Amino acid sequence: MARLFVYALSLAQLVRGLPHFESKRQISQLRDSYDFIIVGGGTSGLTVADRLTEAFPRKTVLVIEYGQIEYATGAFDPPQTIWGGSNPNQASTWRFSSLPNPEMKSTQATVMVGKVVGGSSAVNGMYFDRPSRFDHDAWQRTGSPEFDSSEIKWDWESIFPSFKKSVTFHAPPEEFVKKYGYTWDMAAFENTTPIHSSLPPFLWGDHGIVRAGWKDLGIPSVRECGGGDKTGLCWIPISEHPITARRSHAGLGHYADVNTTRSNYDLLARHQVTKIVYPNGLDKGPPTVMVRSLADDRTFNITPKAEVIISAGAIFTPSILLRSGIGPASVLRDAGIPVVLDLPGVGSNFQDHSGPTIIWNFTKPLNLTDPTPDAMLDPAFAAKALADFNAIPARGPYTLAMASSAIYLSLASMSPNGSTTIANQIRSLVTSNTSASYLPPDIRSSPAMIAGYNAQLLALASFYEHPSAPSVEVPWHTGQFLRLFLLHPLSRGTVRLNRADPLEQPIIDYRSGSNPLDMAINILHTRYMRTILNTPTFRNLGAMETGPVPTAQSDEDIASYIKDSYTLSFMHPCCTAAMMPENKGGVVGPDLKVHGAKGLRVVDMSVVPVLPSSHLSALAYAVGERAAEIIIREWSGRE
Question: If you ran DSSP here, which 8-state letter would residue 580 be given?
Fold first, then answer.
């Protein structure tokens, strides 16, 4: 209970903006020197800052963040009345529109990331699942054989302790366990960290219809999907405190909750790192950090004693590196930037989850005892929901996030023949030396990028034919539609500087579907997921498919529907500074150090080589925890 009180106090103080939670605002408030500089106060960056200041009380840490401290509303908080809508009180975000996507009828992806202390953990859908063990084992394989001799591993067994350490999970009250059938395994959590997750004390009345449909199809329930095995029907925790039902995010758990007791922890808000500089050469690190004030445009330089850790996310980390002359030489030259270090993987290898939507109507009465989302349009019901939200403990609809259930299925389980065909076609791209034709044009001739892409393709071929490696995620909260997440796309995009103003938002090119096998996989996913409409549960309720329409049966018709209904981004950008060998287009090694640049690391979702079978929030915390362990071990040895 003491920990719950501290959380509630921290939340109240943050909302009121008490002085001891105010970050530094001016250069004059900074110390003369720092040991570590962390560029970006997001999910991973604040995790590292917390752990370093705790482990090294005599070393100083400065976090430089573009955004500022804000109260971060939940994914479904008042004053919203439409579940799944936008909240006018949401914390600040960057909103990007990609270049038109030719393979998807020239539509543009929309992706948002946090522009706030706490990063995207302060603005996301609060869905808190973890990757499967097969994701991390594939991650490890992409670095083989070059990384095999490294003592630092990123396979499942190596990173699982970081997942356990990164969150405190709160078991739901028994009344909701009995009502909804929640399951979990406390062995997957350590419960020592002020980042909270829980299962909500409320579900929409039609939530159970979809769950029953999956069970009709014989999809097994998994007791705990955060332990590495998640093929089946999963309960997914949300990043929410169970007493207050307020969002739990890095800005609280790794800054506000610890800042008052850490005299060595500074955060400089509303400042932009323009680039890093090696005045004496790449082997004479750490580099100097060039910083611009967003208040008055003044600039200053600061050089840490130990190292610089870039943690600006999959979109802004490559932007900083590119402005610094670190990236593909041809891209830098075209942008008029002197080449400091030729690393073609910077801003390349861009990936995100995407997929189509299946929609239906129930033509018979549902006869539910619990409300459905349209109940929020009733003013009396909405008022009761608000009162329940403000109660202690919180109850009712406003305790929901974007989803708390999902199925994860392998392609092999949905289509054994199809998975074999897809795996063989992926391998043939490598053996026929045609894979390069599917890479972005500006890196298509790079031997390193081709080698890296081939390594990823071979790992994904094995992934797609494995019976327990998920290829699709279908989360849901209500029985009205299903979104099908393509978990492991084969297409690769780019993040490049805006030549008109390199300090502004970069240019994102998703290139979704540029590898045609992605469409073949989407078609297989869609064919299988439509079968839920023919289950006894759905037939008894008169389910009528409206998207795709029942007459769409050919691959051509389904592909056309997919292109029309496709969501190009489920807002999980990653992989733009991948942890792979330099000769495979990698940017960082297993120790997260940038190849060829002394005193410089990257710690965020840009280091992931292949998009995982999960949303990215829990992984971002775990990567931060693992990175902190690596850095602490190295510098403890030096001490």
Answer: S
Which residues are tagged catalytic?
Answer: 572, 615
Angle between helices 156-165 and 617-638 (to 10 degrees): 100
DSSP state at residue 322 = H
Question: What is the C-alpha to C-alpha distance for residues 88 and 90, in angstroms, rounded to an integer?
Answer: 6
Cα–Cα nearest to 198, from 271, 127, 304, 269: 127
Backbone φ/ψ region at 118: left (φ over 0), alpha (ψ -120 to 50), beta: left
Question: Binding residue per annotation — 430?
Answer: no
* pLDDT at residue number 28: 82
Tokens matching residue 136:
């991390």
Question: What is residue 65's predicted lDDT score, i.e. its pLDDT?
Answer: 98
Instruction: Express each pLDDT in 314-350 by its tens digit.
Output: 999 999 999 999 999 999 999 999 999 999 999 999 9
Residue 381: count other Cβ atoms within 10 Å of its Cβ.
16
| Distance between CA atoms of residues 572 and 161, nearest Å | 23
Separation of alpha carbons 156 and 121, rounded Å: 23
Cis before 79 (ω within 30): yes
Q: And the tokens for 623? A: 């990567």
413 and 231 Cβ atoms separated by less than 8 Å: yes
Quickly count: other Cβ atoms within 10 Å of residue 388's Cβ. 18
pLDDT over 70 percentage in the chain: 96
For residue range 80-100, what is the model confidence (pLDDT) as tens digits?
A: 999 888 899 999 999 999 999
Closest CA to 119 of 47, 15, 206, 62: 47
Q: Terminus-to-terminus CA distance in the chain, angstroms?
A: 38
Q: State the Cα–Cα distance between residues 124 and 113, nearest whole angstrom.
A: 8
> CB-based contacts of 140: which residues, under 8 Å, 6+ apart?
147, 153, 154, 155
Q: Which tokens go with 128?
A: 């808190």
Measured distance CA(96)–CA(80) in Å, rounded = 23
Distance CA 316, CA 483 (A): 28
CA distance 222 to 206: 21
| pLDDT per position as a tens digit, 345-367 | 999 999 999 999 999 999 999 99
Q: Is the dihedral of CA 113, 115, 118, 123 positive or negative?
A: negative
Grade residue 22 by pLDDT with cuts at 50, 70 and 90: low
pLDDT at 407: 98
43 is in an annotated binding site: yes
* 116 in a known ligand binding site: yes
**Got the DSSP string for 165-180?**
HT-EEEPPPHHHHHHH
Q: What letters, b where the CB count within 10 A reaches 16 and e where it falls short, cover 537-548?
A: bbeebebebeeb
Distance between CA atoms of residues 234 and 251, nearest Å: 28
